[in-house]
Amino acid sequence: MTNRIIGYLTLTLIAGCATNGTIINPPPEPTLPQDSAKIRIHRDVSEGEVFDDVTFTINEEPVYQFGDTSDFTFITDPGDYLFGYRQGGKHCSADVQIDAGGSYVFDLKPGCIIDMEKE
Q1: Which residues have a Cβ under 8 Å from the Cβ of 96 and sit 6 or more positions away?
Q2: Which of 5, 34, 38, 97 is deepest in the core (most CB within 10 A)?
Q3: Cα–Cα–Cα angle for 48, 23, 31, rounded to 5 degrees
Q4: CATH of domain 19-118
């Protein structure tokens, strides 16, 4: 019985330490859903570097704080945006152009790298 209680408490503590991502400010909502584009933001952790405490930004505004998650997906209008991320005291950004009906993946990587792939 004691082993079960200790196992349960250990599992509860581990689960309590895991954090999901948090929306800080919602991304811009599409005004014309038929023209909207799908955006997936991927926090790339494959480089082996510590790449946590990352906040995704749009036009300098914080939008999403990555926790243990590595992806954030949203739909927005086509247009020109400034996508970026903050990690610690550093802020990185890139001008992006989103086309109507497009589907994009942006990989956020250590070293101020923001790679775009059009799906």
Answers
A1: 80, 81, 82, 83, 104, 106, 116
A2: 38
A3: 120
A4: 2.60.40.1120
Helices (H), the chain: 2-17
> 39-97: per-residue pLDDT in tens?
999 988 665 566 678 999 999 999 999 987 789 999 999 999 999 999 888 899 999 99
Instruction: Judge whether 80 and 95 are in contact, CB under 8 Å.
Output: yes
CB 104 within 8 A of CB 58: no
- Separation between Cα atoms, residue 85 and residue 77, nearest integer Å: 20
pTM metric for this prediction: 0.78
